[in-house]
From TrEMBL:
This is Fibroblast activation protein, alpha. Residues 409-607 form the Peptidase S9 prolyl oligopeptidase catalytic domain. One of its GO terms (cellular component) is lamellipodium membrane. GO terms for biological process: proteolysis. It comes from Cyprinus carpio carpio. Residues 15-324 form the Dipeptidylpeptidase IV N-terminal domain. GO terms for molecular function: dipeptidyl-peptidase activity; serine-type endopeptidase activity. It is found in: Cell projection, Invadopodium membrane; Cell projection, Lamellipodium membrane. Its main location: membrane. It is a single-pass type II membrane protein. Keywords: Glycoprotein, Hydrolase, Protease. InterPro entries: AB_hydrolase_fold, Pept_S9_AS, Peptidase_S9_cat, Peptidase_S9B_N, Serine_Prot_S9B/DPPIV. The lineage of its organism: Eukaryota, Metazoa, Chordata, Craniata, Vertebrata. It comes from the Eukaryota.
Length: 611
């Protein structure tokens, strides 16, 4: 590597699934054909350390579809120890997992069929095993066994954290995901400690349990978890006992950095606004210090930070509500430097365009005692004495948040500024970052309160006096498409039209990890599965204009979901509009995205915008 020459195809296979450098020196590991290879340096001969990899059957070092999407949120399943002495890797066994199959049409005479192991609710899930390789002697491998309390049934491996070169911490979850077991493992057998965490009211964590951050003693650790009042806070865990070190009716979002003297974390404590994010420093017994609350106060209320190795510097990333701003901060003094201030974009927005204004506030709805947050985007030169069409932009999934302080330029911005449509979003029951009581309200009953609350919010919006009650629509993507469809199928009479992009139709059709986290298995919760289907509401769509959009190659929310909605609507003699995007996945990228928004504009102009 000192010669700065590119590696040849002989040295690294041309289609490598993953390549991860060791933290020190020039060692690397890569995955090819679902097997792991080690190299002592970039030009050294590769040593194959697994030999059983097989597509859609046995995967070494990379996750399968459901682990990548729902467990790791990453395509990596290799973890180097701090000094590169050991390499831990995940082995996934998908042998018993049923495949989803769909066609890729391409340009050939015959379509290609894609097969992906995809465990649906109630079905066989992948089997996960964790191994550790001695890099100096790759044939020496040991398995990190799942604890008996978890391993007696189906389970998931959630996180792998190297504490030292000789100590490993692993989090395991039972299939139900209402508890987590953190196991600390030492290779010499002197330490084998377990710490358990169980949710009192629902699933554990927001989407999944947070990772541990180890203290200087390499045994105790810091972790974000729910306190006794159901708010996510920092805890110090020592000898299996968790002690809260922050508290209040707000939440710690995540830990950014742990040093010998300080813990840096992001929370939404400031000003009691759950949609804000600020960076804090907690040192010893002193009160937490907010490092970003007073910086660019009007512009920057949604921040994150990335630290240097010893935390002497950090990059402050400000995402709104003003234009994004990226700044290099000196953690030891006042010095800082602007990395990107978006001045050019600011000039365009202030001199060439009329931008909407955004209001964020709270209101009460029937069925819940706490004030809930909404945001509303108003057209330029808004006049409260006039009536405007309203479009609800919804996601609504568990632990989600639509009312935040992030700057966005998106389709909604165009509709508001150009077509004079008010855009509103509402965080009802099931939404996150405001405590477990609100978030877990939909536990075991998706398709209920998060749907009802959107309808209640619209009634409140109408009472504000400037909404044209005859021109109200809703749209959403993925879970938002599901909520849109459930709302339109409720027969409320409030909505003229709705757009559902890549919606779920039935939770039986979606993946087991996500669905069972909130709904358990179908055989354990039959009525809730039955009552949460879009298809059973098909007859109520006769009174609304409905547009259904889906990609035929969606490997996440399968085209099967839209096909079932379409079939139910046809069987009930409901007229609706549909748009299928050939060979496009869940994101509808490329030219399909432009086509989609043009089509959505046309749909709204036909059904919502005209008086």
């Amino acid at each position: 590597m000192e010669s700065r020459e590119f590696l040849s195809k002989v040295q690294i296979p041309p289609v490598t699934q993953l390549l991860v450098w060791a933290p020190v020196e020039n060692k690397l590991a890569y995955v090819w054909n679902y097997n792991i290879y080690l190299k002592k340096n970039a030009t050294a001969e590769a040593v194959q350390v697994t030999h059983n990899g097989k597509v859609n059957k046995i995967l070494n070092g990379v996750p399968d579809w459901v682990y990548e999407e729902e467990v790791f949120a990453s395509n990596e399943a290799i973890w180097w120890s701090p000094q590169g002495k050991y390499l831990a890797y995940l082995q996934i066994n998908d042998t018993g997992v049923h495949n989803i199959e769909y066609s890729l049409y391409g340009n050939d005479q015959y379509p290609t069929t894609v097969f992906i192991p995809y465990p649906k609710a109630g079905c066989v899930i992948p089997r996960a095993r964790l191994f550790v390789i001695d890099v100096e002697n790759p044939s020496r491998q040991s398995e990190v066994l799942v604890p008996k309390s978890v391993g007696v049934g189906d389970h998931y491996l959630r996180t792998v954290t190297w504490v030292t070169d000789e100590r490993l911490a692993v989090q395991w979850l039972p299939r139900r995901q209402d508890s987590v077991l953190l196991q600390i493992y030492d290779y010499d057998g002197t330490n084998w400690k377990e710490t358990s965490q169980k949710s009192k009211t629902g699933w554990v964590g927001r989407y999944f349990p947070a990772a541990p951050y180890f203290a200087a003693n390499n045994m105790s650790f810091y972790k974000v978890m729910s306190n006794d009042n159901g708010y996510k806070h920092l805890h110090y865990v020592e000898a299996g006992k968790a002690k809260p070190i922050t508290s209040g009716k707000w939440e710690v979002i995540y830990i950014s950095k742990v040093t010998k003297d300080s813990i840096y974390y992001v929370s939404n404590e400031h000003m009691g606004r759950p949609g804000q994010r600020n960076l804090y420093n907690k040192s010893g017994h002193s009160a937490p210090e907010c490092l970003t609350c007073s910086l660019y106060q009007d512009r920057c209320q949604y921040n994150s930070a990335y630290f240097s190795l010893n935390a002497s510097f950090f990059r402050m990333d400000c995402y709104g509500p003003g234009l994004p701003l990226f700044t290099l901060m000196d953690n030891r003094g006042p010095a800082k430097g602007v990395l990107e201030d978006n001045k050019k974009l600011e000039k365009i927005l202030t001199t060439e365009l009329l931008m909407p204004t955004i209001k964020r506030a709270t209101m009460k709805i029937a069925g819940f005692s706490t004030y809930l947050w909404y945001q509303m985007m108003f057209p330029p030169n808004f006049d409260s004495s006039k009536k405007y069409p309203l479009l609800i932009q919804v996601y609504g999934g568990p632990a989600s948040q639509n009312t935040d302080y992030v700057f966005r330029l998106e389709w909604a911005t165009y509709l508001c500024s150009t077509e004079k449509v008010i855009i509103a979003s509402f965080d009802g029951r099931g939404s996150g970052f405001q405590g477990d009581e609100l978030m877990h309200a939909i536990y075991g009953r998706l398709g209920t309160y998060e749907v009802e609350d959107q309808i209640s919010a619209v009634r409140k919006f109408i009472e504000m006096g400037f909404i044209d009650k005859d021109r109200i629509g809703m749209w959403g993507w993925s879970y938002g498409g599901y909520v849109t469809s459930m709302v339109l199928g409720s027969g409320s009479g409030l909505f003229k039209c709705g757009i559902a992009v890549a919606p779920v139709a039935k939770w039986d059709y979606y993946d087991a990890v996500y669905t069972e986290r909130y709904m358990h298995r179908p055989e354990e919760n039959t009525e809730s599965y039955k009552n949460s289907t879009v298809t059973d509401r098909a007859k109520n769509f006769k009174s609304v204009q409905y547009m259904l959009v889906h990609g035929t190659a969606d490997d996440n929310v399968h085209f099967q979901q839209a096909a079932q909605i379409s079939k139910a609507l046809v069987e009930n003699q409901v007229d609706f509009e549909a748009m299928w995007y050939t060979d496009k996945d869940h994101g509808l990228s490329g030219k399909a995205r432009y086509h989609l928004y043009a089509h959505l504009n046309h749909f709204l102009q036909n059904y919502t915008l005209p008086k």
